[in-house]
Design brief:
This protein has 108 residues and is α+β, with helices and mostly antiparallel strands. 28% of the residues lie in helices and 31% in strands.
Length: 108
C-alpha cells in the first residue's frame, strides 16, 4: 500500500474527508511517523503553525503538502493540512481529537 493510500485510509477510518493534494505532490507524500505525512522533511512539529506560516512568508519554500494530527496536553490536538503549491500558501489547523471533544461532531 502506498503512503498516500495509507493516509487516505487513516482519514477515512477517523471519519474525516481527505483533503485535495495536487497529483505531482501526492506521488511524493511519505509517512514520516504516526499521523504525519509530508512531501518534505519535518523538523518542527506541524502543531507549531506559526513556524510554517513565517517560513513561507520570509523565504522561498519549495512546493509541499503536509497532513498531520498533532498536539499536546489533554485537549490541544489538531489536524494540520498545509499546502504550498506555486503562489498558493494554505495552512489549515483545525481542532480535532482532544479528550473534551466529540470526535463524531468534530469530524462532521
Amino acid at each position: 500500500m502506498s503512503d498516500i493510500d495509507k493516509a487516505k485510509q487513516l482519514f477515512q477510518e477517523a471519519g474525516l474527508s481527505f483533503p485535495p493534494i495536487p497529483p505531482e505532490l501526492s506521488s511524493q507524500l511519505k509517512e514520516q511517523s504516526e499521523w504525519l505525512f509530508s512531501t518534505r522533511p519535518i523538523e518542527v512539529s506541524p502543531y507549531i503553525l506559526r513556524h510554517y506560516v513565517d517560513e513561507a512568508e520570509k523565504s522561498a519554500v519549495k512546493d509541499y503538502a503536509l497532513l498531520a494530527h498533532s498536539g499536546h496536553g489533554v485537549n490541544s490536538y489538531a489536524i494540520q493540512y498545509y499546502l504550498v503549491d506555486g503562489p498558493l500558501r494554505m495552512f489549515l489547523h483545525l481542532g480535532w481529537g482532544g479528550v473534551y471533544m466529540n470526535a463524531a461532531e468534530e469530524s462532521a
